[in-house]
Amino acid sequence: MTAQLICRTSFLFLVFAFIFVNTPLAQEQTPEEVTVSSHALDGKTYFGQNGSKGKPADHDDEFIFKEGMFRSTSCDKYEFTEGRYETTETAGIIYFKAATASPSHGQMFWEGQIDGDSLEGTFVWTKERWYWDIRKDYWFKAELKQ
């Protein structure tokens, strides 16, 4: 085999492997799992607390869902903007994911669930720097604000 043929074969193999690894396998959706629109929680506000993973609460917080966007008020002082949220519902529990960003403080990735009037979940704060990256895990819990 020539070097050119080996390079072509290797390249094709890598392309195939990349496509295969990054293509999700078909998953059956059970009847109790329904995808909900990204506006399913619009108009709801939850009041509660958040804190570092494994530690007690250190901030009061309001979690606001409005016009397909999610916002945590405890992050306002760090200039985190609201971010689009998506939901799924399984057996009466609504699960959501969102991402928020700050021009100077990085990004936050949120995951939570709503069961009745209770909201709880986790978020990860990340900030990439040229000399080291920050990654911190947090939790939150809240109740529907009436």
Question: What would you note in describing this structure?
Answer:
The chain is mainly beta and 146 residues long. It has one domain. The chain is 14% helix and 51% strand. An 8-stranded antiparallel β-barrel has the order 2-3-4-5-6-7-8-9. β7 and β8 form a beta hairpin. The longest helix has 20 residues. About 15% of the residues have low confidence.
What's the SSE blueprint?
Blueprint lengths: L2 H20 L10 E4 L7 E9 L6 E8 L2 E4 L10 E8 L2 E10 L3 E10 L2 E10 L6 E11 L2
Antiparallel strand pairs: 1-5, 2-3, 2-9, 3-4, 4-5, 5-6, 6-7, 7-8, 8-9
Quickly list its features:
mainly beta, eight-stranded antiparallel β-barrel, 9 strands, globular
Q: How many strands, what sense, and barrel or not for the largest sheet? A: 8 strands, antiparallel, barrel
What gap, in angstroms, lies between the N and C termini?
73 Å
Percent helix among the residues?
10-25%
* Secondary structure tally, helices: 1
Shape: globular
Q: What share of residues are in beta strands? A: over 45%
What structural category arises from helix and sheet content? mainly beta
Strands of the widest sheet, in order across it, are: 2-3-4-5-6-7-8-9
Radius of gyration (Å):
20 Å
Low-confidence stretches: 10-31
Task: Provide a brief overview of the structure.
The protein is mainly beta and 146 residues long. It has one helix at 3-22, and strands spanning 33-36, 44-52, 59-66, 69-72, 83-90, 93-102, 106-115, 118-127, 134-144. The chain has one helix and nine strands.
